[in-house]
Specification:
Layout lengths: L1 H12 L16 E8 L10 E6 L5 E6 L5 E6 L2 E8 L6 E7 L8 E4 L12 E5 L5 E7 L5 E6 L2 E7 L7 E7 L3 E2 L3 H8 L11 E13 L2 E10 L2 E16 L6 E12 L7 H6 L8 E12 L10
Parallel strand pairs: 1-7
Antiparallel strand pairs: 1-4, 2-3, 2-5, 5-6, 8-11, 8-18, 9-10, 9-18, 10-13, 11-12, 12-14, 14-15, 15-16, 16-17, 17-18
Protein name: YceI family protein
Family: Belongs to the UPF0312 family.
InterPro entries: CarboxyPept-like_regulatory (IPR008969), Lipid/polyisoprenoid-bd_YceI (IPR007372), TTHA0802/YceI-like_sf (IPR036761)
């Protein structure tokens, strides 16, 4: 509300703090503004700005920078903490004091590259099922969301010396789908949906890794489900490596997400609606929360 009010007033009055002409403000309010730039000094649109009151710890203003990297907010007098974040860059925090009837000069904030996590050593990494989850969220037609997961799967990662040439493969037992409702689960396994009798597995095989900056990657590959193969891209966040687990073995972790359209895999939800069957909507959010163990002759076998 504060940001919208300030922008409406600016559109009627014209000048901005950058021009050296004070902004009109609500009676007794002050103004904070900033210009956010990337490591190359270019305006950074879409950076997230959060202004928090230091006494109450409540968020007083929240939003994103415009295409020119600018953010402005009208605020009550007081002390505030400002946090600015953007994908793949190191967050910046500062403290500001807002005085009544005063617009602070725009603060120029340069975000630096985030520290890149050390990539896993080349070799074969196997999914650790007890510490890995394959989840999904689907919109229940006309109602709330359905949350579910697959409980049986295998997978592995072959890390190449050039990370972009690495490969991932996952095989999911389609019959292991569970949503916490036996009737619904049996229906999802039936010929109306996954048809697990004829298509017992859901398979994903990667084709390439694309680096997006920071700890972000896009994992492109082919997903085969219900007898149909489609190209998909998984938005992946690499979480690093650590020694830990059963016998302090080396393991890595990542979180990958994508959105699937069921009609792409010949799961015709419209025909089911016409028959009065309302189970889940046309899109499904898929999430893989993976821990993988570095495979050596001494790597312990994960428990079932």
């Amino acid at each position: 509300m504060a940001l919208g009010l300030l922008r409406r007033r600016r559109s009627r009055s014209g000048p901005t703090p950058a021009s050296g002409v004070p902004l009109p403000l609500p009676a007794g309010a002050g103004a904070y503004s900033c210009e956010v730039v990337d490591p190359m000094g270019q305006p950074l649109g879409g950076a997230e700005v959060t202004v928090t009151a230091r006494d109450s710890h409540r968020v007083a203003a929240h939003g994103t920078t415009d295409p020119y990297g600018l953010f402005m907010a009208a605020l009550p007098p007081g002390s505030y903490s400002v946090m600015i974040t953007a994908e793949g860059l190191t967050p910046a925090r500062s403290d500001v004091a807002i005085a009544a009837d005063t617009a602070l000069p725009p603060a120029r904030v340069a975000l630096l590259p985030a520290r890149q996590l050390e990539l896993p050593p080349p070799g074969t990494w196997l999914f650790d099922p007890p510490h890995t989850a394959i989840r999904f969220i689907a919109k229940h037609v006309g109602m709330a969301h359905v949350h579910g997961r697959f409980t049986r799967f295998t997978g592995g990662i072959r890390i190449a010396p050039d990370m972009r040439e690495s490969q991932v493969s996952v095989r999911i037992d389609a019959a292991s789908i569970t949503t916490g409702n036996r009737t619904r689960d049996n229906h999802l396994r039936s010929a109306d949906f996954l048809d697990v009798e004829h298509y017992p597995y859901i398979d994903f095989t990667s084709t390439r890794f694309v680096y997006q900056g920071g700890s972000k990657w896009t994992l492109n590959g082919t997903l085969t489900m219900h007898g149909t193969s489609r190209s998909v891209g998984l938005d992946t966040t690499y979480l690093g490596t650590v020694n830990g687990g059963y016998e302090q073995e080396l393991r890595c972790a990542a979180l990958a997400k994508t959105e699937l359209h069921r009609e792409d895999f010949t799961l015709n939800w419209r025909s089911m609606l016409a028959r009065g069957i309302a189970v889940v909507g046309p899109t499904v959010q898929l999430e893989l929360d993976v821990q993988a163990m570095y495979r050596t002759s001494e790597t312990p076998t994960p428990p079932e």
